[in-house]
Amino acid sequence: MPLSHPRRSALSEQVIAELRNQITSGEWPVGSRIPTEPELVEQLGVARNTVREAVRALAHNGLLDIRQGSGTYVVATSELAGVMHRRFADADPRHIAELRAALESAAAKLAAERRTERDLKQLDALLDRREAAWEAGEAEAFVTADATFHLAVVAASHNDVITAVYADLGEVLRDWLRADVGAELTPETYMDHTRLLDAIRVGDAEAAAAEAASYPFLCRPGRFGAPSAD
Question: Which pTM was predicted?
Answer without folding.
Answer: 0.66
